[in-house]
Amino acid sequence: MAEEPVDESARAPGAGSKVVAGNWKMNHGPAAAERFFARFSPAVEEGAVRLVFFTPDLSLAAAADGARVPAEFGVQNIHWEGSGALTGETSAEMAREAGAALTLIGHSERRHIFGETDAEVGRKVRAAVRAGLAPVVCVGELLEERRAGRLEEVLRRQVGAFAGSLAGARAAMVAYEPVWAIGTGETATPEDAAEAHGIVRSALGRRVRVPVLYGGSVKPGNAVALMSAPDVDGVLVGGASLDPDVFARIAEAGAVAGPGGG
Ligand code: PGA
Fold it and tell me: Which residue in 88, 227, 76 sits closest to 138, CA to CA?
């Protein structure tokens, strides 16, 4: 029997609108998370975009309790095992129990600083789906790969490592984050983003319809143009998600850019 295609429709607050996701990385402990939301919550319009926060594990509860706006919360990494002698790791089941609805997987810092492979990304995606945690899987090329004309090959390889597992997921997203644009101030043009997103969608295949986000030096000044590009359903924001006023302006940009997709 054919499986149902993944369809994100109408599940989350702000569903049908752009996704504006913050990746706090190793920033904002519990007290800072509370301070963030005390300022952020009154500054955003409820439901205008689908807000997602990837907090440090230890700040998840403080963030979820402190948010006065509808938002979803996730962790930044999981291990593929459910439990065991794996010091320092967190399983998908534990993340869920602690209140996470989503998890980033395969962020470029995980791939390039911690040496995570495509095969490990695939295992993590399967573990997340099994545990009912929505995987938000990151892909993206290095500058030398782009310069060598290998954009499509790299994205197809990275997406190929997990696309099959998404067919059974209740919810998922993919984030295209060119490695050369992360934390560098260099941003892909809306045309670059549209091209890469087209490749990602084609590599995912027609049965996996999930939002595809752009990430890499997104700021209030470029967010509307990026989110208005074809096939861009939202943004994944690192540095600019740490300041509540700046991130609220990016959320506003998402509302201006209009409905999402996926
Ligand atoms: P940046 O990070 O917005 O600071 O470039 C994006 C990311 O790493 O998700």
Answer: 76
